[in-house]
Design a protein that fits this description.
Layout lengths: L4 H6 L2 H14 L4 H8 L3 H9 L5 E2 L4 E2 L1
Antiparallel strand pairs: 1-2
């Protein structure tokens, strides 16, 4: 599944969390790399996931 800015607007935040954490675990070494590769707004992604009380933790490279 390829992430896009449209997905940030339309996807359920909990589904988005699952996809993002899977991509961080399997494909990208950090959030910036994921956002750059998918050409998505990192701030918008973090805001969407913050709406369900999720924060990015660089040490574990995941939202929790």
């Amino acid at each position: 599944m390829h992430l896009s800015n449209k997905m940030l607007d339309t996807m359920d935040a909990f589904m988005l969390l699952s996809v993002v954490n899977m991509k961080l675990r399997n494909e990208y070494s950090n959030l910036t790399t994921l956002c750059n590769a998918c050409d998505i707004d990192c701030n918008a992604l973090q805001q969407k996931l913050h709406s369900i009380d999720m924060e990015y933790y660089p040490d574990s490279n995941q939202f929790r």
